[in-house]
Amino acid sequence: MKNKWTLVDRVLLLCAAAAFGYFLHTYPGLFPEASIRRPMDSGDIRAKGEAFIRNIGYNPSDYRLRIAMEGNADEIAYLERTWGSRKTNRLLTDSIPGYFWTLRWNKNKSSADSSKKREDVKEKVDDVMFGHLQLSLDLKGNPIRFEKRRANPQASTPGMRAVSEPEARALAERFFDSCTAGRLQDWTFSRMEERPTPEGSRRLYRWKDNRLIAGQSGTFEVGIRDGRVDFCNRSLEIPKTEMEKSKSRNRIESFLFIVPFLFFILCGVVFLIKRLRQDLVDMKSGWIVGLLVFIGWALNFLLNRQGNELAWEMAVGFLFTTPFVVGGAWLLFVLGESFTREVWEEKLLTSDMLRRKPLFPELGKSLLFGIAFACLCLGVYSFFCDAAIRWLGGVFVLKDNQLNAFSARFPATVVLGKSMMESVYFAVAFGFFLLSFLKKYVKQTVVLVLTALLLLLFVPFAIPSLSFPQSFGTGFLMGLLFIGFFLRYDWMAIFTGMVFVPVLFYGAAFLTTGTGVLQLHGAGLFFAVLAVLVWALLSLRAEPVSKEAVRFVPEYVQRIYEKERIQRELEIARNVQLNFLPRIQPQVHGLSVASFCIPAREVGGDYYDFIYLGPRKLGVAIGDVSGKGIPAAFYMTMTKGFLKSQARTLTSPMEVLIHLNELFYENSERGMFISMVYGVFDLDARTLTFARAGHNPMLAKRSGGGAIEEVSSNGIALGLEAGPLFEKNIQEKCIRLKKGDIFFFYTDGLNEAKNRKQEEFGEKRLKDSIRMSEQLSAEDMLKTIRENIHGFTGDTLQHDDMTAVIVKILP
Length: 811
Hints:
The protein is 52% helix and 19% strand. The chain is of the alpha+beta class.
């Protein structure tokens, strides 16, 4: 297979290189993460935090700790909106603690027992009374927020004395002095107020910063209750209107994301169930994607934890969530793969070949253009964000988990795990499922692209996003790149690109932090991209391989091929069987004859035939082989040959059936049998002579008579017994024919036809249908009967073969 490169491919690679260069150039002044400087790691912060809360009278040793890096989204958004991204990044780096470490100590259930052994009354009170401590330290380790909450806010605090206002203020001033490192000259005491809380009244002391930061004053609040510091907070005085706007935007964004997301999940579940019923998915094919998501989820879940959390709680949380995360990706993949193989199987060629061979040119091209896709996305995204912030008033929205990678023990590993998991979901959901689904039902490419773009507008990417409504612009551009690359290349390229978008972004972020450890992890992320680039180049130089030599065919596709083969064979068998039945109605002077046969499956076991015995003599046979499908059709065909050979040499219907029984018994398996009626119409003798081998009685509407009679004779089915018993039971009868007589031969598929209520059509309705149409020709009579049966059953599945023959004696 030749690996063709076009001018468009070469131009895209050049554009990708230029776009990535633009991203690296604009990153330090554009994205808020560029202002993060982390001189202390989580271990240093933990030591600082524990020392701080011990100094103010709390003992955290019996409580579980969680550490995470967070950001003040409202402050950062306000600063960006007021001063622009570049100045905001400088302010966040130098003077404003927009990013901070949060340490939260939750009450350990086992601490109640250990507290009984303590002699210090105050520690005993703490063990019983408070639910958690939460402390926020800036990136240099200075406290900016502290809060203590009790497990039971309404309970009293025995052993704690009430203090006077001067004592409380002195305590607050000592605490404030320790937090500001003695820089009291930069602050002015503002006021004290009594503030009610669920846990009781709190004295709140506030200091105001004499220095204006970004045009706003800074404040520092200290709360005193029960003679101890239980609250502090350092912040900018952001106008409340700005905070309300931010909350409103967040609610709109959540709504605009959740509604399409739920609709997307609902559609996925519906189509998955439908295609499972149709056996159009291969569940085994999703194990590779499931493994990738499992690895990514494990890295993101387990390595993203800080502090001294209980191992069993982490294990329970991981085991509970993993089946949903991994199972969702697995099922989404097999559903998307099913649609993709149906509408454009070439999109899976590279991933299919990778199952068999690690190096081949198509893989190199997919990996290379996947990296190019990531570079283009970052460059285009940076350009639009810069323009939106400069001219459209856009700001970045800080998500809750956006800073997890900066606070993790192994930042690069967490980024890779998160990228692997989220990118698989994105590539599978939108590349496999959405685009392939639209391709199946939307024939025009323009409509397909516009519909996909409309849905991609609401998708959050694994990198910082702008606030509403500018986020629609980024969604449009990223979606357009995603669709364009998928239409031109394949799923492997899209998957590679989606993985490397956050990898390259956080790699650049870590390198700009100025922290040696983070810079090392940033270099590791770039090294991962470089390793894949080397893999791509080696693959491009590998020997071309034949598409068919490494072609992967999923099990369900093999089953489809097998079903199609069987269906073709059944169609052939059906045509053969229909050719064995009479093709035209017999033309005998004095008789009007009509017939039909409708198998319940592709082939059936009902049988009818006409045997010419003379110019005015016609043999009519109708039979029903036990069972359905191919076995019944086989025995029906065999019976036809036996009947033809016997009817031409024997004149008696009874003798024909006796010899036919012997031949059928000798050549069929035990348990197989066939019911049959064989009659001979002799117009010269004006008689109908017939014998019945366990079949339905004929229905006869005699000329001049009102009722429809059931005409029958004794006999058992062919093949039940070797001969003696059959000969003993069979009986032959003769009926005188009159002009206008009607004889109706049929199988039980007619009278036993059922509707949705499982009601049978029945003998009565069958007789009524004959009576209502007796004035019509034989052909029109059968047509009327068929219409009546179909009107009764509706769209209920036919459960048995239906065969009928009408013979009218003409005047």
